[in-house]
Protein: MetA-pathway of phenol degradation
Organism: Polynucleobacter victoriensis
Amino acid sequence: MLKNTRLLFLIASSFVSSIAFAARPMMTDDARIVDPQSCQLESWVKTYQHHNEYWALPACNPLGYFELTLGGSKVTGEDRSTPSDRVIQAKTIFRELKPNGWGIGLAVGNSHHFSTTQNRSNHDVYGYVPITWSFNDDQQLIHLNLGGAKKELDHSFKRTWGLGSEFEVAPNTYLIAETFGEDASKPSYQAGVRHWLLPNKFQVDVTTGTKSSYNTQNRWFSLGIRLLLGN
């Protein structure tokens, strides 16, 4: 377990520091956690018109009943007002998702934003309930997230939400689509494809998305990976 954890964090560090390609397919979370005594790395690059975000989110399940995520992002490009992030999150499951059933859990975390341009730092505390429904032996999955976030910058509380879907179109290949947002802001949309190159071990995905706006600066393209390490 310790060896796997060290390897995972070394991989995560190399992805962030060397600006390599990496990815997580959806912003809307599912009601699942990594297997007990196992780890995963979700990492991706998100490209906008004037800047790029490089993310790495390693996660482990050391005790069998909760998943701990610790990671963050690095921003490059013209738009340096976009903050880099550091994230720590704990997630647990109350009802396990099984084929043709449903699952529910809880995630809580802290996101630390730092903007080099405005020279400011702030912490957001958030939580959400992920719910997932399975159909046709896991060939179709529907995800719903409901939660909230306490914003340190303006001392506001925002309700957050997300609705996503996964449809298996070929063995180990899925079409994904989602919409997500928070109070008083326009929703965002994302769609793409993900594929297991090594089933339940190594996954790649490609997505494109936008925020509800005619401004091309709000459009993005992402490319990522998911690597599972376990017993």
